[in-house]
Amino acid sequence: MSLATAPSGLARDGANGRFAEPLVRLERVGKTFANGTVALAGLDLAIGRHEFVSLLGPSGCGKSTALRLIAGLARPTSGRILGPEGAPRGAVGFVFQEPTLLPWATVFDNVWLPLRLQGVSRRQALGPVGEALAMVGLAEFAAAYPRELSGGMKMRVSIARALVTRPSLLLMDEPFAALDEITRLRLNDDLLDLWRAQSWTVVFVTHSVYESVYLSTRVVVMAPRPGRVVADLPIEAPWPRDEAFRTSPAYNALCRRVSAELHRAMGA
Q1: C-alpha–C-alpha distance, residues 158 and 146, integer Å
Q2: 44 forms bridges with which residues in the sheet?
Q3: Going along 22-162, which residue ranges are E strands?
Q4: Residue 51, pLDDT above cutoff 90
Q5: How many whole angstroms separate alpha carbon 9 and alpha carbon 47?
Q6: Distance of alpha carbon 262 from the chain centroid
Q7: How many alpha carbons lie under 13 Å from residue 224 in its C-beta half-sphere?
């Protein structure tokens, strides 16, 4: 069942499949930039607790803009963005396409940064930073500098920095797009392991049909500018997902279905 057939205003809880008050709800959201570009128009979307939702669509369809609006990094021109029953949204972590690490700072100091901006001392941050680095498999690299890390390791540091504040909502803007295929697949698996263990809600922007199907509980397909939802597809596949799933007929069938919706969206 997609949101199109769900009870009004409700979203699927990714942990149990039931419908509940969403963690975040976008209602008729529009965004027009100062130069007159209409990035989003009438965007309706509900994100349930513990869901892993991928936003999929062609370049320029407003996926990243929607993510920034959810994060509060920009304001919608029209419509509104709400938490459950209109309550303020919880803590949000954001992972950008590039790691954006401070080259002069150690891995520890890069991950500490969000806490430091909140007034948390280095001593107070030892536990949270150590825990975040352990989550992404970099506990032994706290004293390393970005120049000493591979591309995949830099992205892990970026993810740890987003997790150090213990967010309830993790927003990821094509975080693995620039990585080689082997590293990308490995990080896909690691991200799913973390999501299942920690029960976060994740909204993930990607251009890849295959990545979206592998990772998600739902794939939301967006039409070209002005961005809007044209398909909301549940990915009803068992967990855990692994290499056997990637080569299964069920995975291939889901990829074909999502790909067909994407092609339809590009003609919308």
Answers
A1: 11
A2: none
A3: 24-32, 38-47, 52-56, 78-82, 92-95
A4: yes
A5: 10
A6: 19
A7: 7
